[in-house]
Amino acid sequence: MARTSRGAPRSDEEFTFVSPVVKYLLFIFNFIFWIISLVLVLIGVYARIVKHAETALACLAVDPAVLLLIVGVLMFIITFCGCVGSLRENLCLLQTFCICLIVIFILQLTAGVLGFIFSDKARGKVTEVINNAIVHYRDDIDLQNLIDFGQKEFDCCGALTYLDWSKNIYFNCSKDNPSRERCSVPFSCCILSNDTVINTMCGHDIQELDYIKVGNRIHTNGCIDKIVDWIHSNLFLLGGIALGLAIPQLAGMLLSQILMNQIKDQMELQNYNQKHSFDPWS
């Protein structure tokens, strides 16, 4: 016979091992990520249906719109199991939620280890993706803005060298190329000066100049080397981001495991009460 906070006796049927704090904390945790999953799905649908950017984005290893849809749908299903499982105290849904988090965490850890071990192959794949993006530079405004942002942010030009821009049909340096941008590079490759008037044509005919003259007008280093240098210089920052992504997953696994244990204890108590409900000596 349990007792209430005022000392009055309370029947075992009113007692519960399930903590409301754990239960609703897990629900809120899942509800937040459930909303995020809906946003990802909506963005993915917009990018896939409204934008019609399949041709331009086909150069990438994975279509970002499809990737957003896959991640959003998976998050929706997993967090839905967590929300309903915590509210209904359903062991099956909570176990599904916990197992999914464990599998995702292991896959992320494995991907990180494999990426570190096979860094040369990963570098080659990234180089291939960037070169393909250069080929489709003019095909989609969003892809163009993404490349320009990367080149401005890392002060770089091309994948391995600025001559990679000759792979683009507009910037190709062949003599039979009728484009006005023949032998040029995008403005995002240029070294910006403090002049009041910015020379937006600074990359014009740059591929035909000597390397020394080129270095005075544009960034000659490729973006791959710049990105690798940035990663080496910001290992602590990247480690903090990885830890920040892992903490919610670990918290979800811990809360779901605690709640499942409490539900199992509650089920055992209910079974015990049912067995002894008609026992006059209990």
TrEMBL record:
<keyword id="KW-0472">Membrane</keyword>
<keyword id="KW-1003">Cell membrane</keyword>
<dbReference type="GO" id="GO:0019899">
    <property type="term" value="F:enzyme binding"/>
</dbReference>
<keyword id="KW-0812">Transmembrane</keyword>
<comment type="similarity">
    <text>Belongs to the tetraspanin (TM4SF) family.</text>
</comment>
<keyword id="KW-0325">Glycoprotein</keyword>
<dbReference type="GO" id="GO:0005737">
    <property type="term" value="C:cytoplasm"/>
</dbReference>
<feature type="disulfide bond">
    <location>
        <begin position="156"/>
        <end position="189"/>
    </location>
</feature>
<protein>
    <recommendedName>
        <fullName>Tetraspanin</fullName>
    </recommendedName>
</protein>
<feature type="transmembrane region" description="Helical">
    <location>
        <begin position="66"/>
        <end position="87"/>
    </location>
</feature>
<dbReference type="Pfam" id="PF00335">
    <property type="entry name" value="Tetraspanin"/>
</dbReference>
<feature type="transmembrane region" description="Helical">
    <location>
        <begin position="93"/>
        <end position="118"/>
    </location>
</feature>
<feature type="disulfide bond">
    <location>
        <begin position="157"/>
        <end position="173"/>
    </location>
</feature>
<dbReference type="InterPro" id="IPR000301">
    <property type="entry name" value="Tetraspanin_animals"/>
</dbReference>
<dbReference type="GO" id="GO:0046930">
    <property type="term" value="C:pore complex"/>
</dbReference>
<dbReference type="GO" id="GO:0005886">
    <property type="term" value="C:plasma membrane"/>
</dbReference>
<keyword id="KW-1133">Transmembrane helix</keyword>
<dbReference type="InterPro" id="IPR008952">
    <property type="entry name" value="Tetraspanin_EC2_sf"/>
</dbReference>
<keyword id="KW-0963">Cytoplasm</keyword>
<dbReference type="GO" id="GO:0005912">
    <property type="term" value="C:adherens junction"/>
</dbReference>
<feature type="transmembrane region" description="Helical">
    <location>
        <begin position="24"/>
        <end position="46"/>
    </location>
</feature>
<dbReference type="GO" id="GO:0051604">
    <property type="term" value="P:protein maturation"/>
</dbReference>
<feature type="transmembrane region" description="Helical">
    <location>
        <begin position="235"/>
        <end position="259"/>
    </location>
</feature>
<dbReference type="GO" id="GO:0072659">
    <property type="term" value="P:protein localization to plasma membrane"/>
</dbReference>
<keyword id="KW-0965">Cell junction</keyword>
<dbReference type="InterPro" id="IPR018499">
    <property type="entry name" value="Tetraspanin/Peripherin"/>
</dbReference>
<dbReference type="GO" id="GO:0046931">
    <property type="term" value="P:pore complex assembly"/>
</dbReference>
<keyword id="KW-1015">Disulfide bond</keyword>
